[in-house]
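Morning F.,

Quick status update on the modeling queue. The single chain you submitted on Monday has been processed. Sequence for confirmation:
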Amino acid sequence: MNLFYTPDEDIINQAAQSEPVRKAIYEEAQRLLPIAKRIAYAEHATEFGDSLHVESGTRPGTKSVSGLRRPYSRVIANSEDAEAQEHGTSQKMKTAILARAVVELGD
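C-alpha cells below.
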C-alpha cells in the first residue's frame, strides 16, 4: 500500500498520460528545435545542428513517490562531440546551444 496516495493521483496520472498533454509537450520541443538549429549553424557547429532531433517517451516513475509516469519530449543532439559542444571541455569552449535556445524560446 502506498502511504502517500491521495485520490487526486488517479486524476493526475490520467491527465499526464492524456493526448492533449503529450501533444503540448511535443509541440514545445518542436518549437525549440529550429531555434537550436539556427544557433548551432550560427556557431559553425554544423555536425551538432544536423544531429538535433526531438525524442519523446514516458519516464518510468521509479523516482517518484507516487510512481507518476510522466511524458516528455526533448531536443537531443547525437553528434559525436555533442556533450563537449554544449558543456565544453578543457580543449573546447562551451557553446550552450540548447541552453541558449531554451532562453530564446522563453523570450
